[in-house]
Amino acid sequence: MFQTLRSRLAFWHALIFAGMAVVIFVIAYQTVANQLLASLSEELHDTAVEFSDLYRTGGIRDLREEVASESLSHDGDRFFARYLDAAGNTLMVNHPRTWTHPLPLPDLQGAALQWFDIIINDGGERARMLALRSHDGGWIQVGMSLQTYDTQLRQIIRIFVWSLLVLVLVGMLVGWLQVRHVLAGVDQIRRTAMEIGEGDLDHRLVLDRHGRELVELADGFNTMLDRIQRLLGEMRDVSDHIAHDLRTPVARIRGMAESALMTRGEYAPDGEALALIIEESDRLSAMINTMLEIAQTDSGVTTLKKQTVDFSGLLQDACELFLPVAEDAGIDVTLVAGEQPLLIDGDAGRLQRLIANLLDNAIKFTPRGGRIACAAGIVDGWIELVIRDSGSGISDEALPHIFDRFYRADHSRSTPGNGLGLSYAQSIVRAHGGGIEVTSVYGEGTTVVVRLPAPHLV
C-alpha cells in the first residue's frame, strides 16, 4: 500500500496531524495539571490558615470541631489534619483509615510553611500535605488525597486518546481526499502518457481546476507532444524517402545484373560476378528493410497489428520449420511447451520473426552434434520463452554489445549475417511490452530468455 505516493502522503499527513495534536495535548495537559495542583495547594493553605486563626481564638476544642466538620465535607478518607505542640507532641489528629503509610512530621526548626508530597498506602495513592507554624510555636498539618486530582488527569488522558484516534482517522481521510484531488491531474498525465506510448499521438492533456502548477505542466507536456509528433512525422517521411531512394537503385542493379546474366548465360566469363551482384543486392535489400523496420518499431512509427495469438503454437510452427535445417546440420532440437495455449495480444508476423531470428542464431552458432532446447510457459505471470544451445557461446567482452546494430563478435564474422538479428528481436520484444536477456558461457553455449506480458492469464 505504501508504494503509492497517495498512500504515503496520506500517511504522513495523518502522522504530522497526530504529532501536532500530541504536542498541543502535552502542553494543555501540563497546564491543566499545574492549575489543578495549584488550586489544591491554595485550598490546603487557606484551610491551614483558617485552622490556625480558629485555634488562636477558640483553642483546641473549636479546632477539633472544625476539623471534624471539614473531614465530613471531604468524605472522611481524603482529608488529614493534625496539631502538634512546640515539642512535637500530637494534641489532635484526624487520620483517614486508608492512609496506612507513616506520615512525615514537620521540621520543628525549619521554615514556618512546609510542603510534603507523599504515598499514603500500598495502592500507590498520593497525597499533598502542608505544615503551618501556629502562634504558640505549635504546628498545624493538613493534607488532601490526590485521588480526585489523578482521576481527573486520567479522564483527560482517556478523552485525549479517543480524540486522537478520531483526529488520526479524520486526518487520514482528509489527507487522502486532498492528495487524491492533487494527484488527479498526475493520474491524467500518466493515462495520457500510456495512451501515447500505445501509439495515440493525437491525444492531449486538458487540466482544469487542478492548480496553476499542474496546468503549466500540462501545457509543457502538450508542447512536447506537438514537437514529438512533428519529429515522428518527419522521420516517417525520411524513412519513406530512404526506402524509395535505396530500394529503387538496388532493384535496378539487381535487374540489370539478372538481365545481363540471362543474356550472356551462366557460364559467361562474368557470369559468376553477375550472380554475386544479384545475391548481394538481395542481401542489401533485406538489410535495408530490416534497418527501417527496427527504426520504425523503436520509434513507434509502425503500429503493431495486434490480435490474440497462441504463442505456444507460433513456437511449435517455427520449430517444425527449422527442424529440417537443424537435422541437415546434425543438431538435435527439442521443444517443451504445455498443452494449454499461451495467449498474448501481439503482432503474429513480428512474433514469428522474433522466434525465427532466435532459432536461426542458435543453429548458426551450434556445431554438428550439438543441442538446442526450446521451452515456453508461464513464469511469475509472464509468458517466458527460453532457447538454450550448446554452441560456441559469447565472450564476456562481446556480451554487452550483442544488441548493438551491426555488431558482430570476432568468432562470428565468418558466419553469414549482418548483425541486425538480435537488434530486431529486441525491438519486437520492447514493442510488445516485454524484455529479453542473454546469458552465455564462452565455448559452452548461450541461453536467450524472452518475457512477454500475459493479459489473458487466469
TrEMBL record:
<keyword id="KW-1133">Transmembrane helix</keyword>
<dbReference type="InterPro" id="IPR003661">
    <property type="entry name" value="HisK_dim/P_dom"/>
</dbReference>
<dbReference type="InterPro" id="IPR005467">
    <property type="entry name" value="His_kinase_dom"/>
</dbReference>
<feature type="domain" description="HAMP">
    <location>
        <begin position="180"/>
        <end position="233"/>
    </location>
</feature>
<dbReference type="InterPro" id="IPR036097">
    <property type="entry name" value="HisK_dim/P_sf"/>
</dbReference>
<dbReference type="InterPro" id="IPR036890">
    <property type="entry name" value="HATPase_C_sf"/>
</dbReference>
<feature type="transmembrane region" description="Helical">
    <location>
        <begin position="159"/>
        <end position="179"/>
    </location>
</feature>
<feature type="domain" description="Histidine kinase">
    <location>
        <begin position="241"/>
        <end position="456"/>
    </location>
</feature>
<dbReference type="InterPro" id="IPR050428">
    <property type="entry name" value="TCS_sensor_his_kinase"/>
</dbReference>
<keyword id="KW-0902">Two-component regulatory system</keyword>
<keyword id="KW-0472">Membrane</keyword>
<dbReference type="GO" id="GO:0005886">
    <property type="term" value="C:plasma membrane"/>
</dbReference>
<dbReference type="InterPro" id="IPR003594">
    <property type="entry name" value="HATPase_dom"/>
</dbReference>
<keyword id="KW-0808">Transferase</keyword>
<dbReference type="GO" id="GO:0000155">
    <property type="term" value="F:phosphorelay sensor kinase activity"/>
</dbReference>
<protein>
    <recommendedName>
        <fullName>histidine kinase</fullName>
        <ecNumber>2.7.13.3</ecNumber>
    </recommendedName>
</protein>
<keyword id="KW-0418">Kinase</keyword>
<dbReference type="Pfam" id="PF00512">
    <property type="entry name" value="HisKA"/>
</dbReference>
<feature type="transmembrane region" description="Helical">
    <location>
        <begin position="12"/>
        <end position="32"/>
    </location>
</feature>
<dbReference type="InterPro" id="IPR004358">
    <property type="entry name" value="Sig_transdc_His_kin-like_C"/>
</dbReference>
<dbReference type="InterPro" id="IPR003660">
    <property type="entry name" value="HAMP_dom"/>
</dbReference>
<dbReference type="Pfam" id="PF00672">
    <property type="entry name" value="HAMP"/>
</dbReference>
<dbReference type="Pfam" id="PF02518">
    <property type="entry name" value="HATPase_c"/>
</dbReference>
<keyword id="KW-0812">Transmembrane</keyword>
<keyword id="KW-0597">Phosphoprotein</keyword>
